[in-house]
What does this fold into?
Amino acid sequence: MQAITQPATPELRPAQGRKTFSFGGSLGALTGLLLLCVAVSFLSPHFLTTRNLLNILQQISIVSVIAVGMTFVIISGGIDLSVGSIVAFTGLVMAILMKDHQVSVWLTVLIGIVCGSLMGLINGLLISELSVPPFIATLGVMSIARGAAFTISGGAPIFSLPEKFLAISGRLGPIPIPAIVMIALFCLGGYILKYTKLGRYTYAIGGNETASLLSGINVRFHKIVIYTLSGCFCAISAILLTAKLDSAVPVAADGYELDAIAAVVIGGTSMLGGEGKLSGTLIGALIIGVVNNGLNLLLIPQGPQRMVKGVIIILAVVVDLVRKRKRR
Amino acid sequence: MEVVLEMKDIRKEFPGVLALDGAHIEVRAGEVHILAGENGAGKSTLMKILAGAYGKDSGSIVLGGQELDQLTPKRAQDLGVSIIYQELNLVPYLSVAENIFLGREKMSRLVPGKVDWKALRGEAQRILDGLRVDIDARAIVRDLGIAQQQMVEVAKALSVQSRIIIMDEPTAALTTQEIENLFRIIREVQSKGVAIIYISHRLEEFAQIGNRVTVMRDGGTIATLDVQGTPLDELIRLMVGRELSDYYPKIRVAAGQELLKVEGLGRTGVIRDVSFTLREGEILGLSGLMGAGRTEVARAIFGLDPLDQGEIRIRGRKVTIRSPQQAIRAGIGFVTEDRKGQGLVLSLSVGENITLASLGLFTRWSHLDLGKERAAIGEYLHKLKIRASGADQKTLNLSGGNQQKVVLAKWLLSKAKIFLFDEPTRGIDVGAKIEVYTLMNELVQAGAGVLLITSEMPELLGMSDRILVMRRGALAGELVRSEATQEKILSLATLGAA
It folds into this structure.
């Protein structure tokens, strides 16, 4: 009988709030990642080498940067399907500026970031001001941006970009610059989620929009900011992608929205919003990266690779659901 | 009278929590059996075991003369047990008839696989008419009010030939008239020999509808008594396990300066020409039938719905409030009716909910000072005696009373002076209710003003200094504490004159 009466005085544990890089909620995913690494390193002697591991970081950086923005969007209870198309469009805008108009690399990068952010802003305005459901709004913008990419390029790829721009895809010592950019953005995103109003409001809006509104949060404004942020991360991803390929094509980044969503979901963020962590998203992206890398090392073709990826997405969510049910 | 159900020595343990230990209940045919107790006393768990939703660890269940080991929801239903939850279980976009016969549709004899809608509707209408309720079996459930939806649930329970109907706080969302109507129907059902187990926190209902009452506390049964001949304070003492000196611990505070003045508030088709003042130290009751526009007044003051007419003055100064942000800045806090849906973000921690409206206090150069935030949270957890394991506890796992305190803490931290309370004690137990009243007292003692919207007449009379009565979107009258009676309020609310 005593067991059900609660203690009368609150025991004040130190409240850390949200931990930036604690793996508490994504422990399952982290375990999965480690097991995966052990398995692949037994199967292929080439896996556990510094060079290969750095390669993986380089490979996942482009989608991971998108996934940072996607994590914000999904925690806020939304979805952004337009990311891949925004990457393609922004990449082309930058390539055209540099090739056809001889705009300097720095200015191009700046314009690219503004361009991606503006596309995100359009998503935000549609969702906040016109109350279009995020799925529909970003689906529309996805098609518009892809169409615009074809239109401004005439369908042809643009290549042979300035050396200075291509250097973005280079290395700083042994470490690929895109990997550094990715880690920096994860840290920045983690900081925003934990240490700013925007971060806290992202969780609040995703958890309960009405209660957030009634608590005086400017829900519309913050949603616009979140989608604009997602567009901005897409632009950064476009810079990394275009520099890596030394070309911009209208079909670039096709399907990246699904890879980014997969990374977020594997990382334990709820599609219902209100809960999630960037550390999880990083682990999710690494899992996808290690699987792709491992299958490549084992010379397994594209078809089975994709099938394995699908199985992992489903598995990750099922494991998460089972764990949650057990806790109840 | 025939005993239809006997549950004896029921024990149920959840991981880490002993939910039931020594719970008994004996229910007879044709009686309204009240199940009383504070939240967490084990009422719902016991009823869920009866409905087959949970298994028991030990104890015996004799239902209709049969000793049963474990029940499943299907088996319980077959044995004539129906449960009507507080959150009604109807499909909103289907018709009344379809809902009543959901999963048991009558099939056509001519066309295989086709539902015989005509027979279905006729049968549904017959049951509804038998209850003497004016509901069309063809109506879509979504278009019905909560009270009518409840009648549909009752009809559904009758359609499966229930012998025991469990009702979990059926009157929580009903107006006085609707409650009268529900009671009439309960008596109707009762006269057919059906037993009703009635869970409620509203003590004044016990005598109106109940025959016997079983009181539970801390997972066990304390006593089963005849309702007639058991005084209310005796029941409260049994439920709470201690003497409650005063159910409504009203402390009168001398009214100070004018805090809020609204003049000619109007919103087309919703409220019109609402004017009143609220002073420091005052609890102003706002009464009226459901749909009279009480909540709408609060929403308008809080900037949720745009005003067509009227002005709002705070401490004599005219203010424009078009959004909750502006309302909060003007020192207004809104304790909403729907705690879980509107008051709290359940996925956030207790601490994060407390600071949600005041993050600016801890922000510098857009950097949140988590240490400073933690200190403030600790202070309010302590000040309001919020029973949580700490600031990090998920709000979802708190009891109703503690959740309400978290909402209050949020507004105290935001430096609110004007508190709009909309049904603040709905669905919380006696002990927690008294804590909410005590908090209200503390608020007004500290110079705040409270606008109290409530459908619970004793609460309105017990706590208010003055009472405004609304009828059809307008103020019908005002009563001071000393002259207010239930009859006067009701006649103002229904007829517009006292």
